[in-house]
Design goal:
- This protein is of the alpha+beta class.
- The protein is built from five helices and five strands; from the N terminus they run H-E-H-E-E-H-E-E-H-H.
- Strands 2-3-5 form a three-stranded antiparallel sheet. A two-stranded antiparallel sheet has the order 1-4.
- The protein is elongated.
């Protein structure tokens, strides 16, 4: 059967009429901000205090968009006769978001939790060079990082928390030390010695000598 002329147009208009009567679902951005999931990959924040300049994030980045500069400083020995130590000091930490593909490998491989995801995404620039965020800008993104989700109440307690709780319970069961006495401390002073190290004590009262037996010829 040959199609009726104009049937396709009628079907298209029917779809348009049905859609016009429905409630709109368009989000009025930017007047209304979208509700993003808690694990949204928007921008990366840097917690500089945790960074040890191990360079793992820069080495594992598939786009090579992380730039790190550092220098070594000598830390004097804490005790006399000790050996000086050296540590890395961070000079520059930058991420070029014009190259970043938001894979999250740098965050996953960081052993000291120095990088975090932030859901912020409004950092578009008219100049591509402005998309390279230095460590000061990365630090500002840390204030937008959401708090971690609560633990599952049915999950097992972490080993670190369980060990700390058991230690606290043992200390509480032991009770506080007696007032005026240090807790579990060895006695100090002369009373701690097992034997006097000075001169011997003065002798007691003198005992008269035992009389000897009389010799022959003496009365």
């Amino acid at each position: 059967m040959a199609p009726i002329p104009g049937s396709g147009l009628a079907k298209g208009l029917a779809v348009t009429l049905r859609t016009m009567t429905r409630r709109t679902v368009t989000e009025q951005y930017p007047e209304a901000q979208p509700e993003l999931p808690p694990r949204t990959r928007g921008v990366i924040g840097l917690f500089e205090e945790n960074c040890t300049v191990c360079m793992l994030c820069a080495r594992e980045c598939p786009d090579w968009c992380i730039y790190i500069d550092s220098h070594k400083e000598t830390v004097p020995a804490a005790t006399p006769g000790g050996r000086d130590r050296s540590r890395n000091v961070l000079d520059r930490f930058a991420i070029d978001f014009s190259l970043c593909m938001y894979c999250g490998i740098c965050i996953e491989v960081c052993p000291f939790d120095a990088l975090f995801w932030s859901p912020e995404f409004e950092y578009a620039e008219t100049d591509i060079r402005e998309l390279t965020h230095e460590r000061d800008k990365l630090r500002e993104w840390m204030w937008t990082v959401p708090a971690p989700p609560a633990l599952d109440p049915r999950a097992e307690e972490p080993k670190e928390i369980a060990a700390a709780r058991k230690t606290a319970e043992k200390l509480t069961a032991a009770g506080p030390a007696p007032s005026g006495l240090p807790a579990r401390s060895a006695p100090s002073g002369p009373t701690a010695r097992s034997a006097p190290s000075g001169p011997a004590a003065p002798p007691g009262p003198a005992v008269p000598p035992r009389p000897s037996a009389p010799e022959e010829g003496q009365s």
